[in-house]
Amino acid sequence: MNHKITQQPRRWLDSAIHHHWLTREGLALLDFHRQARLASGGFAALDGNGRIPAGAGADTLITGRMAHSYALAALQGVPGAAALAEHAIRALRGVLRDERHGGWFAADPAVTEDRTKQCYLHHFVALGAATAAHAVIPGAAALLDEVVEVIETRFWSAHEQAFVERYSQDWSELSDYRGGNSNMHGVELCLALADVRDELAWLDRALAIVERLIHRHAAARDYRILEHFHGDWSEWPDYNVDRPDDGFYPYGATPGHGFEWSRLMLHLEAALESRGRAAPPWLFADAAELFDASLRDGWASDGASGLAYTVDWQGRPNSRRRRHWTHAEALTAAAAFLRRTNEAHYERWYRQLWDFIATTFIDRARGGWQQELDSQLAIDPAESDVKPDLYHAYQATLLPRLPLTPNLALAVEGL
């Protein structure tokens, strides 16, 4: 006699073994990336073997993310993590800061000619400072006060209810461009500041950004996120049309950002409701549509395994590269939806994405995760063999085990 099995499998999120695996993988990532510490201050990008290339200097994005990541580790009780977070904070208060005009450079001025002030980078200076301040890392609270003042006076536009993108070094010229990526990480920062500083205005700002970028623009494009706009917020869909592989400003829609936005929207919904505020019904509805649209456009859409990096406005793959962070964001979004809905659809994808990462991106021979692969899942020669990023991978080992609110910095202490 055949018996039909109807019972839903136990969720991985409820499995002690899975939690142990996540913890082990997170600790391995922390050990690997501590090699990015520069004796001269800050952190640099590692090559595939975990070495700092000759002549490399401190990178602001990496250093801000390291402050955030190692402060999270310190909050969990990982020995040595607090010292690494403090090392990052010192660089953010020192060599990476523009002492003359205020704000932060993209990297150590000794190794880069770029002197522009970029919103995206300032958000990670602030995120690192916020998490480190909560972990009581020396110097972090003062850094947080300073960078929040810069963000509020320079980058947040009360008139636009969004973040502007880029200034000249002396703040005299503002670019005629508005970006979805910097505003997405602005939402991430708003969620952190609302909890770490207990300032509810940041939630209102996050909601205004989501309403503009997702509810107004992405929903009208079948939930393909338009990330490029002119300074008046008119759409700029052909921006960088010849650069679909660009790491920060690619042409077309980026499914990985669709997943990231969808998860942040669930965190925002939970944060509003935890404060006794009503979340608009469209917030969850749009997030769910965004998750499914990102799967539709991204997963194996070019006939190969994994998520394509970018697609055009008809959903056809533009860049066939497989980037580790898109998969990390997809699985943390699946975990967030699973926690929010308990639907088997998200459990299936959570498992499938971890299986893919475990067999494709985790480098068991040399450590860390492969960062950029081609469509054949080989190291992409255009990007070379690099492992600069701890942030996305490490958060992928933490977020599935945590509630949707409070923010990561507060919630991680319960692990």
Overview of the structural elements:
This protein is mainly alpha-helical and 415 residues long. The chain has 2 domains: 37-167, Glycosyltransferase, CATH 1.50.10; 183-384, Glycosyltransferase, CATH 1.50.10.10. The chain is built from 13 helices and 12 strands. The chain has helices at 16-33, 60-76, 81-93, 119-134, 140-155, 180-196, 201-218, 255-274, 281-298, 324-341, 344-360, 391-398, 408-411, and strands at 46-47, 117-118, 156-157, 162-163, 166-167, 177-179, 228-230, 310-311, 317-319, 322-323, 372-373, 386-387. The strands form 6 sheets. Strands 1-12 form a two-stranded antiparallel sheet. The chain has a two-stranded antiparallel ribbon with strand order 2-5. The protein has a two-stranded antiparallel ribbon with strand order 3-4. A hairpin with a 4-residue loop joins β3 (156-157) and β4 (162-163). α3 (81-93) packs across α4, α8 (255-274) packs antiparallel against α9 (281-298) and α8 (255-274) packs parallel to α10. The N and C termini lie far apart (45 Å).
Topology:
Layout (H helix, E strand, L loop, with lengths): L15 H18 L12 E2 L12 H17 L4 H13 L23 E2 H16 L5 H16 E2 L4 E2 L2 E2 L9 E3 H17 L4 H18 L9 E3 L24 H20 L6 H18 L11 E2 L5 E3 L2 E2 H18 L2 H17 L11 E2 L12 E2 L3 H8 L9 H4 L4
Antiparallel strand pairs: 1-12, 2-5, 3-4, 6-7, 8-9, 10-11
